[in-house]
Design a protein that fits this description.
Largest sheet: 4 strands, mixed
Number of strands: 7
Helix content: 40-55%
Oligomer: single chain
CATH topology of the largest domain: Beta Polymerase, domain 2
Shape: elongated
Number of domains: 2
Radius of gyration: 18 Å
Order of helices and strands: HEHHEEHHEHEHEHHE
Strand order of the largest sheet: 6-5-4-7
Strand content: 15-25%
CATH superfamily of the largest domain: Beta Polymerase, domain 2
Structural class: alpha+beta
């Protein structure tokens, strides 16, 4: 059984897997989800999701109910620390689901990645807590589309969001661009298209 890696995004959760489960549940109060759906949304293995949900239900952070063969879980909004826990996991693990949803709505963005210090922490590289989130948007998005994503993400995450646009051609011929050469040599977190750590 693979051991979950300790989180380098925040020392207050057991692992990134737990952080991603928490942000998907605490960040959607009132929504119920199956463990399979939770695994798909977070990219965390189903066995790990099951184990972490067991712990969180036992601690009354999450609540559950059965519907046929499905086990549905949701945030326990009556927990005394619900709001504080929600703010913590949103600040640390929230950028991925929030930005992924926002860029998915823009057809002119064909690929998008988080890069910089947040991406490095997500990949387990130690360092200071990232104060802002750097995003690379590939395609032909209009400036107003980029500004809308920045504004929406900033309002939800309460963090500075910096989005840099590059054309598909420039991204594909990155060897000619010193900035992209640096970005591609460091950790990337996929938001849309491509893969994590794309080169």
């Amino acid at each position: 059984m693979a051991k979950s890696r300790a989180s380098t995004l925040t020392p207050f959760v057991r692992s990134d897997a737990q952080g991603e489960i928490l942000v998907e549940t605490l960040g959607r109060p009132g929504d119920e989800t199956t463990l399979t759906e939770l695994a798909e949304r977070t990219g965390v293995g189903l066995t790990t999701v099951h184990r972490e949900v067991e712990r969180l239900v036992a601690a009354q952070v999450l609540q559950e109910r059965r519907q046929g063969n499905n086990r549905l879980v949701s945030a326990n909004t009556a927990h005394p620390l619900y709001h504080l826990m929600g703010e913590l996991v949103l600040a640390s693990h929230g950028p991925l689901p929030v930005l992924r949803e926002l860029v998915s709505n823009v057809e002119s963005i064909t690929e998008a990645y988080i890069y910089g210090s947040w991406a490095a922490r997500k990949h387990g590289k130690p360092g200071h807590f990232p104060h802002d989130i750097d995003v690379l948007a590939v395609g032909q998005p209009q400036l107003d589309e980029i500004l809308h994503i920045e504004r929406e993400a900033r309002e939800i995450l309460r963090r500075e969001i910096n989005i840099r646009r590059v054309s598909t051609n420039t991204w594909q011929h990155w060897q000619n661009d010193p900035f992209l050469t640096t970005v591609r040599s460091r950790p990337l977190v996929q938001l849309k298209g491509g893969t994590d750590g794309a080169t």
